Amino acid sequence: MNYIPSETRYTDKMPYEYCGNSGLLLPRISLGLWHNFGDVDDFGVAGDMIKYAFDAGITHFDLANNYGPSPGSAETNFGKILKRNFLGYRDEMIISSKAGHLMWPGPYGDGSSRKNLMASINQSLKRTGLDYFDIFYSHRYDGVTPVEETMQALIDIVRQGKALYVGISKYPVDKAKQAYGILKNAGVPCLIHQDRYSMFTRDVENGTLQSAHEAGAGFIAFSPLAQGMLTNKYLYGIPEGSRAARATGFLKREQISEDKIRAARSLNELAERRNQSLAQMALAWVLNNEYVTSVIIGASSVRQLSDNLDALNNSSFTKEELEAISQILSTVNGNMPK
Q1: CA 38, CA 94: separation in Å to the nearest integer?
Q2: Which of these, 56, 34, 14, lies nearest to 303 by C-alpha position?
Q3: Paired residues of 26 in beta bridges
Q4: Model-level pTM greater than 0.90?
Q5: Which among 21, 82, 258, 285 counts the fewest CB atoms within 10 Å?
Q6: CA 101 to chain centre
Q7: Domain tally, the chain
Q8: Residue 42 sits in a domain of what CATH number?
Q9: Domain with 214 in it
């Protein structure tokens, strides 16, 4: 049976926010395909999640060339899902991708050089079957490539019609400011800065959020649940089969520290008093920051996606609640902004 998107998806299901000084609206919650959309995952479940997200008003889908595993497979699978289910709906979607992390072996498959970005976007467009990306990012500052070179590649990508907007991801504040200036002077302003932001990771409060705002760029947060640490999964340690229990992956056992477990338990008690889950409160807390345009969530099932979307039903905080959260977070080593 062919999938037919719901015609009610843009009503009261999802609030939208203008991204920086642009005229582009982004949903307050976006769907990221970092995990669970690769060739090792269930293709049917991946398709169901994307269809559910679109029906719920999520119009923004965030990719990168190396998402999988294997690298590139998330883009390939997303392209297949688009072709099978969303023909005729491309203009209702914001699709982003990135390049800059290791994608293929050899000297040109990693980093922020013009060579890498130009090759990468061509490969990503081919994998997804798209004519263009709505947003294309430099995935990181690699510490070597001059910012001028990377930004000129992004400028040319827009001028070649391969992307409508460009963004940067995980750039240090000084390099981000340099990037904003180069892009603005070229008439291709930076639309958005993407970085990690959660109750347990607040580095962006030390200038990243403010500098993006001052430059007229939006900000989109990834890993708002600290890869699961801000859910009920790790309240009593590391369960078997969890992400932290695996030998491979980005979340390591040593990151599940005792102070974070204690803080998560206290936060969970506060969330329960607010009649929501810890994950829902953690998402609402990130969205409560005035500089945050959207937050990228990951999901492994439609049910998990639905639960996270319910954060929008209770996204405001009292002064007392914010003070209580701040007090709890002050107990997490190295967590508070400087």
Answers
A1: 20
A2: 56
A3: 17
A4: yes
A5: 258
A6: 15
A7: 1
A8: 3.20.20.100
A9: 16-228+288-315
